[in-house]
Amino acid sequence: MAFLGEYEVSVTAGSRIVLPKKIRENLKGNTFILTKGYDICLAGYDKQDWNNRAGELTKISLLETDNVSKRRFLFSGACEIEIDVQGRFVIPKALFGYINLIRSTLTIIGVGDHFEIWETKSWQGYLKQINQQVTSN
After folding, report:
1. Which pTM was predicted?
2. N or C: which end of the chain has fewer CB within 10 A?
């Protein structure tokens, strides 16, 4: 299972989007976990994979401030999301606000073991930055 590709999707009323079929095919069922991602995006995980990762994260010492901060960041924003028969789902209000939607489109990218949802303008800016780093080396 590997999440691959880049897809631009429209946001409809009520913060509803369609999860691309190529992304849905890598989920085991019609639910997944959506949480805050790094670089101001959302991160989506297959539910079973999330449960495995969550188990590992909860074993990390609470005595280390950095570990506590990471757990707070990931778990506080995590939501179980259900996909309808047409492949649509609603992004929860708190998560929708986190990505600072500027236009009515989002970009969904595969990142191997998970997928990410970016505000399209932010994704394009991030790509420019990465391209400059890659071409300057």
Report:
1. 0.90
2. C
